[in-house]
DNA sequence: AAGGCGGGGGC
DNA sequence: GCCCCAGCCTT
């Protein structure tokens, strides 16, 4: 039996019952695919339900505010996905009369939809014969066929795409694409796959040559950078407000909310912090500082953030001349999209 | 071609 | 600590 037929035969009795597999609505499939980019099914599932509930169709999604979408995305990470979805939704309303496209060539023009997602939506919603190429497919193909070319180089991607296209079952692309991804997720797992029960074990190159643990080949990632964030919690007791700022572009957490901060490339003591030019410009010489929490390490895939939260009081009257922050009512804080580091702090210290 | 972008989970 | 996860965008 062919590789493709084996994969499909494995799928039917082993597949998970996932909600986006019960529809061919390209909008719903789009929601699920964007949510699942670089995200495990278990992590994305609750978000999928919330988004379908809140925005049952493309029109409601496009009509929402970006901040509201970001707030619903809060905690899921890679927030450019949420911002790009909003742009894509508006493009569907403006350029496609509100009808979500189902062809690969139309889909790939939308913000946040690349080669994988366009192939996924086109095949799942309209059975277009385009192969999906995600982490699962790279792994399955490299192991089964013994491809030692690195998967994260342009040369490797081209090679794997050609193989993926060759293996695609053109008569049933939707089922085949689902099958190979599910096979990668459940059977041909990254670590400790149970090859003893694999239906492809006798013809798998990696299994037969004992290379399961060395395939696929991937060029190593970069080292993480350390960043030191000193967050200032500034309460206005009279109004029940707290100081908040919105993060800008070209850095993490774009358009999300946090406290006013001073960032350093190396750790500082509290007295050193008070003597920085930045502190003086923000709050004036007379301001007082009290530590709320010792440095908390927040790990992202490419940087380590050491965040210290400090209470500031007795700030000078003419502080915030540059408009570094705004005051928001504590009761309204929940409606703003905040990174995990911030909303976890608010929760832990009962400020929300 | 390479770097940037979250957060969680497995080992 | 390192790797991976239904990747995409920018430079």
UniProtKB/TrEMBL annotation:
UniProt keywords, alphabetically: 4Fe-4S, DNA damage, DNA repair, Glycosidase, Hydrolase, Iron, Iron-sulfur, Metal-binding
Cofactor field: [4Fe-4S] cluster
Gene Ontology molecular function terms on file: 4 iron, 4 sulfur cluster binding; 8-oxo-7,8-dihydroguanine DNA N-glycosylase activity; adenine/guanine mispair binding; metal ion binding; oxidized purine DNA binding; purine-specific mismatch base pair DNA N-glycosylase activity
GO biological process, one term: mismatch repair
Pfam families the record matches: HHH, HhH-GPD, NUDIX_4
Gene3D superfamilies xref list: Helix-hairpin-Helix base-excision DNA repair enzymes (C-terminal), Hypothetical protein, domain 2, Nucleoside Triphosphate Pyrophosphohydrolase
Signal peptide: none
Domain HhH-GPD residues, every copy: 35-186
Annotated cofactor note: Binds 1 [4Fe-4S] cluster.
Catalytic reaction list: Hydrolyzes free adenine bases from 7,8-dihydro-8-oxoguanine:adenine mismatched double-stranded DNA, leaving an apurinic site
Transmembrane segments: none
Enzyme nomenclature, EC number: 3.2.2.31
EC category name: hydrolase
Function: Adenine glycosylase active on G-A mispairs. MutY also corrects error-prone DNA synthesis past GO lesions which are due to the oxidatively damaged form of guanine: 7,8-dihydro-8-oxoguanine (8-oxo-dGTP).
PANTHER family: ADENINE DNA GLYCOSYLASE
Protein family: Belongs to the Nth/MutY family.
NCBIfam families, per the entry: mutY
Protein name in UniProt: Adenine DNA glycosylase
